[in-house]
């Protein structure tokens, strides 16, 4: 037995202790009392004790001495050896003679003598199961005897149900409470008897059983066979966990014995999710239905009182499930209708109950469900929204409304990553033409994109659907049109094909104001930031200002736009808060993109260990949901991270896998990242020729290939590789092209890398110093430590050649320190080699800055760049107070007293250590 160590020790002591004694085992139905009783009997048999059994039977609870007969019948041979007075008492009890029934004391003394006589040959153990059903006369005698067993060789064990009144309640016998199992013991029992249970079913069983062993053993196979009923209940009110007949009987008889009004109260409470068990200590019951005038149910052990609210709660989850399952369908619908009236001011709660109360089509209820779905979407409830819209479609009065609502459900399912469900919804209403509708194009487009990476056919299909809607002469931004436009933009981003993008721009221009503001942001950010990125970051910021009104996928899409213009850091805290909710509520695809964005920002700001963990989490999620596109997308970012960290073998392995999958499908977005992995890995290895060849595979020097999103992102890579391979003209041409294209105005990162590239390629030392200063002093330079360190390294090398070794040490030290903190060993060694050439001590490393911890140094760098404590906290996921505490410790270490002195102090610290 699991989790019964204390009880087993107590029972062992009870059986083996000398002398007679009595013990009552009291607990709920199914808690394991009978199992413990069997254990007691086995122990007694091992101790050579005679075991005599009896059991209370509810049907015999009114028959005098019926229970006592069970105990005494095996001892009839001993009665003839008693004196005449005691024999006459038993003759009356057994009906062998007439006479007045003996008193409790008279019969009790006779029973004690009989038991002593029988036990003189062999110790006795009397076990009584279901003692609550023992007739009153027998109960009184057993209580009398149980209190007087001391000094005998007789023991008595009585098992009682704690929720049923009994004559033993006042018998003053010692008790051993049999409680429910602990969570740990429940898990052990469940895993032993039902191994390899589905995690969701396992959790459901544990929650419903609440430590009741009978439920733990009986529920799993029954729930497995009735999963659909449960899934519907998660949205349309509590339906009760499917219970086998044996578990329904635990509380069923008591529920059936209640009056109709009380049963109705219990049913409304159960359907509205009233808590079960005072252990929940729930304060949310104030928003649930309040069961009134239900004292009768409490008296029967079905309800308890919540100690925090004073409201009725169900005594156990099994009570709640039994209440629902023993009600008729009409009773449940009536209860839901009543609850809809109770919650008339709560949009989603009212819709929940309306959905479950209706049988025939009802447009008013369908509209209420649709409104509830819109509300659920804004709080991240994708699964609920899909279910509500599907139910709204069922209740729609016209085929057109049915198709429209099913289309919306399929759209949310597809966008949320529920690909199988999206396909089922698309094919569920062929009679009304959904299979050929624009809604179906949206759903099938998401399936084709996410599951297969099919950008070619899905692009053609969605493009045609948008053209068809345009040609119908729409006069407003139709919901389906907006969905098609956003999907077309997503497919175009993954295809990264210049010709396809130009056709999309032409099509969207023809739609004019029918394309909403958000979609225009996606159009400009996702396509080509070199051509269309100016001003996008301001537009993204304005859109995020209305965060509360944005649907989750719009938040994610705007996050992607922020990534393309390198302003993602300011929105990462929101993404981090939202991602767990998206996973839990079923919006898997949204969560995958959010994890991509979080990982990208972690890479950008130098949190590479955290980025690795985020990427692995995303890879597990994408693989589990069969999202081939997102799985390869995640591998691409993991490959890029590996290349940055110098793990070039792993980087190239991931590069090859991504490229082999993406290139035949024409997924240019991923093939470009694959080329970027090759460029970064080659740079880490110091193979500049290979790096140059990879870089020009993305874009040739002096230009930025249209709609190649990696072209501006690999600006530094191409310039450095060209310089190191003697292609100084190509390097300079590319740096100037970045300036002429206005990249510094597009994003802070591109401003940093453009000035860095211009500094690296300038032939005039004054021009080089000017661009280097613009790069290093840029307000956002600290947000991109890897790029800044590369620029510092290049500048230090130039300074060593033009200004002498001592002048180079400061820049080289800062670069070496950053590379070490990032975990880029190849780059760090390169910087240290330059430092040694510049005459710095061989031991130069970030250990020289040990006066500051890594976190203190990072906070100091960010503060020196001009960020406030709040902004630093958001960047590093710390509270402003924690940031302030770190700076309080940093100032005395640097021998400064103000924030304004930080930059100079950090520079002096590095200079002093290397002179």
Automatic annotation (TrEMBL):
Domain HTH luxR-type: 845-910
Signal peptide: none
Key word Nucleotide-binding present: yes
UniProt KW keywords: ATP-binding, Nucleotide-binding
Family matches, as InterPro entries: AAA_16, P-loop_NTPase, Sig_transdc_resp-reg_C-effctor, Tscrpt_reg_LuxR_C, WH-like_DNA-bd_sf
Database matches in SMART domains: HTH_LUXR
Superkingdom of the organism of origin: Bacteria
SUPFAM superfamilies linked: C-terminal effector domain of the bipartite response regulators, P-loop containing nucleoside triphosphate hydrolases
One Pfam family cited in the UniProt record for this chain: AAA_16
UniProt-recorded name of the protein: AAA family ATPase
């Amino acid at each position: 037995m699991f989790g019964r160590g204390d009880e087993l020790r107590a029972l062992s002591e009870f059986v083996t202790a000398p002398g007679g004694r009595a013990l009552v085992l009291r607990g709920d139905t199914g808690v394991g009392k009978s199992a413990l009783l069997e254990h007691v009997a086995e122990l007694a048999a091992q101790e050579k004790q005679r075991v005599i059994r009896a059991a209370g039977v509810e049907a015999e609870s009114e028959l005098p001495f019926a229970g006592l007969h069970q105990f005494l019948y095996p001892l009839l041979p001993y009665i003839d050896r008693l004196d005449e007075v005691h024999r006459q008492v038993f003759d009356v009890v057994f009906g062998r003679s007439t006479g007045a029934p003996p008193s409790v004391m008279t019969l009790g003394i006779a029973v004690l003598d009989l038991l002593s006589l029988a036990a003189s040959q062999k110790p006795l153990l009397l076990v009584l199961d279901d003692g609550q059903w023992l007739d009153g006369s027998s109960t009184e005698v057993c209580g009398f005897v149980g209190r007087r067993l001391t000094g005998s060789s007789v023991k008595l064990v009585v098992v009682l149900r704690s929720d049923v009144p009994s004559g033993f309640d006042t018998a003053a016998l010692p008790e051993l409470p049999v409680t429910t199992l602990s969570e740990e013991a429940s898990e052990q029992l469940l895993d032993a008897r039902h191994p390899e249970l589905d995690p969701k079913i396992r959790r459901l069983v544990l929650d419903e059983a609440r430590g009741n062993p009978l439920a733990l053993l009986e529920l799993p196979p029954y729930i497995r066979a009735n999963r659909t009923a449960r899934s519907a209940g998660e949205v349309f009110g509590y339906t009760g966990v499917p219970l086998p007949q044996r578990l329904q009987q635990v509380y069923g008889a008591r529920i059936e014995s209640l009056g109709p009004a009380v049963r109705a109260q219990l049913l409304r409470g159960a359907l509205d999710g009233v808590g079960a068990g005072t252990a929940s200590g729930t304060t949310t019951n104030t928003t649930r239905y309040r069961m009134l005038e239900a004292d009768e149910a409490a008296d029967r052990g079905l309800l308890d009182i919540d100690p925090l609210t004073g409201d009725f709660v169900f005594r156990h989850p099994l009570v709640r499930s039994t209440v629902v399952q023993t009600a008729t369908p009409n009773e449940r619908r009536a209860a839901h209708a009543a609850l809809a009236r109770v919650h008339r001011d709560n949009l989603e709660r009212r819709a929940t109950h309306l959905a479950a109360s209706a049988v025939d089509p009802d447009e008013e209820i369908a509209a209420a469900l649709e409104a509830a779905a819109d509300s659920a979407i804004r709080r991240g409830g994708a699964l609920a929204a899909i279910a509500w819209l599907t139910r709204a479609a069922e209740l729609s009065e016209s085929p057109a409304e049915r198709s429209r609502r099913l289309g919306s459900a399929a759209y949310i399912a597809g966008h949320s990553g529920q690909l199988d469900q999206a396909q089922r919804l698309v094919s569920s209403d062929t009679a009304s033409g959904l299979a050929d509708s624009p809604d179906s194009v949206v759903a099938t487009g998401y399936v084709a994109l996410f599951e297969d990476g099919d950008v070619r056919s899905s692009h053609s299909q969605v493009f045609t659907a948008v053209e068809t809607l345009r040609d119908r002469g729409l006069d407003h931004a139709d919901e389906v049109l907006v969905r098609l436009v956003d999907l077309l933009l997503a497919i175009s981003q993954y295809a990264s094909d210049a010709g396809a993008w130009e056709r999309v721009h032409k099509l969207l221009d023809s739609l004019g104001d029918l394309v909403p503001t958000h979609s225009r942001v996606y159009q400009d950010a996702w396509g080509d930031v070199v051509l269309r990125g100016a001003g996008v970051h301001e537009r993204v910021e304005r859109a995020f200002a209305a965060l509360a009104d944005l649907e989750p996928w719009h938040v994610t899409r705007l996050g992607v736009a922020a990534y393309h213009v390198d302003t993602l850091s300011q929105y990462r805290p929101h993404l981090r808060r939202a991602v767990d909710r998206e996973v839990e509520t079923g919006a898997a695809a949204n969560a995958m993109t959010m994890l991509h964005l979080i990982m990208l920002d972690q890479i950008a700001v130098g949190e590479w260990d955290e980025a690795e963990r985020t990427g692995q989490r995303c890879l597990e999620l994408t693989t589990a949901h069969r999202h081939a596109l997102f799985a390869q997308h995640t591998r691409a970012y993991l490959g890029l991270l590996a290349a940055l960290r110098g793990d070039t073998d792993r980087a190239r392995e991931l590069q090859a896998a991504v490229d082999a999958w993406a290139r035949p499908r024409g997924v240019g977005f991923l093939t470009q990242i694959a080329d970027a992995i090759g460029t970064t890995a080659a740079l880490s290895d110091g193979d500049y020729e290979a790096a140059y060849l990879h870089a020009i595979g993305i874009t040739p020097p002096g230009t930025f290939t249209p709609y190649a999103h990696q072209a501006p992102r690999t600006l530094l890579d191409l310039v450095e590789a060209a310089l190191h391979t003697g292609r100084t003209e190509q390097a300079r041409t590319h740096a100037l092209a970045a300036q002429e294209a206005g990249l510094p105005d597009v994003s802070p990162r591109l401003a940093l890398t453009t000035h860095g590239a211009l500094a690296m390629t300038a032939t005039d030392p004054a021009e080089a110093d000017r661009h280097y200063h613009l790069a290093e002093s840029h307000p956002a330079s600290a947000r991109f430590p890897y790029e800044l360190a590369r620029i510092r390294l290049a500048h230090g090398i130039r300074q060593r050649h033009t200004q002498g070794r001592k002048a180079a040490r400061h820049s080289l030290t800062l670069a070496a320190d950053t590379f070490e903190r990032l975990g880029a060993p190849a780059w760090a060694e390169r910087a240290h080699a330059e430092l040694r050439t510049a005459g710095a001590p061989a031991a130069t490393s970030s250990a020289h800055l040990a006066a500051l911890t890594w976190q203190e140094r990072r906070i100091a760098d960010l503060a020196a760049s001009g960020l406030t404590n709040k902004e630093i906290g958001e960047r590093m996921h710390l509270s402003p107070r924690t940031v302030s505490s770190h700076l309080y410790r940093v100032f005395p270490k640097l021998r400064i007293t103000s924030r304004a002195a930080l930059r100079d102090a950090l520079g002096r610290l590095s200079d002093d250590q290397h002179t």
